[in-house]
């Protein structure tokens, strides 16, 4: 069977090109075809690592027509408003940004808001979105996508990322040709944001919790279209061959073997514009602690220029740069396989990770290590980036009453919380494993890659 992986950007590469998925599919006798917009350097790296030659086609991101964009954004705005009311959480509204750089974009957003305010039910949203899909059938991008799919002749089309707008024509083209379609929800915070611009035959989710979220926010999607597979990004943490001894890791990155290591993991500029100030706070509070070394992993999809002054002023910060290739824009950034080993070992050897509400708390909890969330503001922060807003985001409600992470409410608490997390982690976050199991739902019998391959096989078999 021919399974086509549609890879619209670089962020999903580790899950589907670096995991065991391709090898599993190959062993089962499937042909894997890549339809992607990635740099040729990356596909060559993947082929060299796997020792196989991949059939590849170039995917071009093409904007939809203005009317299609209007209907899509109006539906999204209406869904965000309905979801905010349904979940009684006004922070869901922050996922809509009416900001745009161009006059055309500003007018489009205003028009989308005007229509979206007049849509009061999920059924009405479905009607509006279906009008956009109908218009897409007559578009040039739909015709081009059909032509490419007729060359590929896949038995299944799988899009690795659920929120990329320009993929919609490819999905609709596949449907028109009778090709089964699937996608995966990329991250644990994606669903409340209303970024699901296309509809497929099967949705791959991390857990029962995420399945229930999908049914809540998209009631038009039926339960039989959702498969719980976990996420391949967590498979790597269970691969013992990726782990280095503490001495090996220390030698490789120039770390002090005699100290306890804690990691400050950076956020992007939009999420945490004051990240450099937070990094400075942590460094200054730990500077006199002889038994602790502070490691800094910047967010991979941005330059570290905004941290330069802090790194120069605080020599006790050990910079551990991600091993990513940085392209011209966010979607063209991609990780090297070596970054997986780096991240696995950071999560294993650093007993504490400090950040502003990052998913990294889940990554580190795989090994029983503790996430500490910064929960105070610096002056001048915009309201939607304030901790009063951030920690009310819907995905944090997944913790319920559990103590899954620790919180730092002021700069003066940093040292105390770090030392407690190192010495008595269960005092800080006794429920961290419960939270991880709820969000990720790992299966000790089957990796996520195996479960995804099983879904692919069943879908392709059904079509045949």
Q: What does this 3D model show about the protein?
A:
It comes from Algoriphagus aquatilis. This is UDP-glycosyltransferase. This protein is of the alpha/beta class and 464 residues long. The protein has three domains: 174 residues, Glycogen Phosphorylase B (Rossmann fold); 69 residues, no CATH class; 200 residues, Glycogen Phosphorylase B (Rossmann fold), CATH 3.40.50.2000. The protein is 41% helix and 13% strand. The strands form three sheets. Strands 3-2-1-4-5-6-7 form a seven-stranded parallel beta sheet. The chain has a six-stranded parallel beta sheet with strand order 10-9-8-13-14-15, with helices on both faces. It has a two-stranded antiparallel sheet with strand order 11-12. Strand 14, helix 15 and strand 15 form a beta-alpha-beta unit. Helix 4 runs antiparallel to helix 6. The longest helix is centred in the N-terminal third of the chain and has 21 residues. It is globular and about 65 Å long. The termini are close together.
Q: Which regions have little confidence, pLDDT < 50, spanning 5+ residues? A: none
Quaternary state of the chains: single chain
Give the domain tally: 3
- Average of the residue pLDDT scores: 93
Portion in beta strands: 5-15%
**Class by helix and strand content?**
alpha/beta
CATH superfamily label of the largest domain: Glycogen Phosphorylase B
What value does the Rg take, in angstroms? 23 Å
User: In CATH terms, what is the architecture of the largest domain?
Assistant: 3-Layer(aba) Sandwich
Helical residue percent? 40-55%
């Amino acid at each position: 069977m021919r399974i086509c992986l549609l890879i619209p950007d670089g962020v999903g590469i580790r899950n589907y090109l670096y995991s065991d998925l391709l090898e599993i599919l190959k062993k089962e006798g499937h042909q894997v075809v890549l339809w992607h917009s990635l740099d040729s350097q990356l596909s060559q790296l993947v082929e060299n690592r796997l020792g196989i030659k991949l059939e590849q086609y170039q995917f071009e991101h093409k904007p939809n027509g203005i009317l299609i964009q209007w209907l899509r954004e109006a539906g999204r705005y209406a869904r965000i408003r309905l979801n905010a009311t349904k979940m009684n959480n006004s922070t869901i509204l922050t996922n809509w940004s009416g900001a745009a750089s161009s006059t055309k974009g500003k007018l489009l957003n205003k028009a989308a808001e005007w229509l979206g305010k007049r849509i009061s039910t999920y059924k009405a949203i479905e009607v509006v979105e279906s009008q956009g899909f109908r218009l897409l059938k007559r578009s040039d991008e739909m015709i081009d996508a059909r032509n490419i799919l007729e060359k590929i002749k896949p038995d299944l089309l799988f899009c690795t990322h659920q929120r990329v707008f320009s993929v919609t024509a490819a999905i609709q083209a596949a449907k028109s040709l009778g090709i089964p379609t699937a996608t995966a929800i990329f991250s644990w915070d994606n669903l409340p944001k209303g970024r699901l611009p296309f509809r497929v035959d099967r949705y791959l989710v991390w857990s029962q919790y995420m399945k229930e979220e999908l049914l809540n926010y998209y009631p038009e999607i039926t339960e039989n279209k959702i498969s719980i597979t976990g996420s391949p990004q967590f498979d790597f943490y269970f691969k013992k061959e990726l782990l280095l001894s503490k001495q090996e890791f220390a030698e490789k990155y120039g770390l002090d073997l005699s100290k306890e290591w804690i990691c400050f993991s950076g956020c992007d500029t939009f999420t945490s514009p004051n990240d450099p100030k937070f990094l400075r706070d942590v460094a200054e509070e730990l500077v006199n602690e002889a038994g602790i070394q502070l490691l800094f992993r910047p967010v991979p999809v941005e330059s570290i220029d905004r941290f330069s002054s802090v790194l120069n002023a605080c020599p006790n910060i050990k910079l551990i740069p991600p091993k990513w290739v940085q392209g011209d824009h966010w979607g063209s950034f991609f990780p090297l396989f070596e970054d997986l080993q780096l991240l696995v070992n950071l999560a294993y050897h650093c007993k504490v990770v400090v950040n502003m509400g990052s998913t990294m708390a889940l990554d580190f909890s795989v090994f029983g290590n503790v996430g500490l969330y910064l929960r105070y503001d610096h002056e001048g922060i915009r309201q939607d980036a304030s901790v009063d807003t951030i920690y009310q985001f819907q995905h944090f409600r997944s913790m319920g009453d559990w103590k899954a992470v620790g919180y730092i409410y002021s700069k003066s608490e940093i040292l105390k919380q770090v030392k407690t997390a190192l010495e008595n982690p269960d005092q800080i976050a006794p429920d961290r494993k419960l939270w991880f199991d709820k969000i990720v739902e790992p299966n000790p019998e089957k990796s996520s890659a195996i479960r995804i391959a099983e879904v692919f096989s069943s879908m392709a078999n059904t079509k045949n």
